[in-house]
Amino acid sequence: MRTLALVSMATLLCGATCLAGAAMAAGAPDGGVMASRFGNTTITRDASGVTNKIHYKPDGTFDGSQGATTFSGTWKLDDKGRVCLATTIAPGTLCTPVYPHKVGDTWSAGGYTISLVAGIQ
Fold this sequence. Notes:
With 121 residues, the chain is mainly β. The chain has two helices and eight strands. It has an eight-stranded antiparallel sheet, with helices on one face. Strand 7 (106-109) and strand 8 form a beta hairpin. Residues 1-30 have low confidence and may be disordered.
């Protein structure tokens, strides 16, 4: 059961940056739409209360946790205005449209509630 929850994390991670929009140069992990996430924590929560904490870095990597389980991966922006994620917990790459958000924002996407909070938590 825990493995199934982690495999679905690729979709959950996607929700952490979803809400289509602001594009940036293809594959350039240097800020833009993702800049507010650097040094901060993106928290996702599904309807059953499963919570993930994700930390995006300007070098195109991220790490995070779901309870005591940790994960990591890479991200990049493509030429279609999407963030593409590859994780240690799910095969392949998942791409989804992305909007910019500010620290303190909370939004919904794909059945998840997502918050961007200050600092690494």
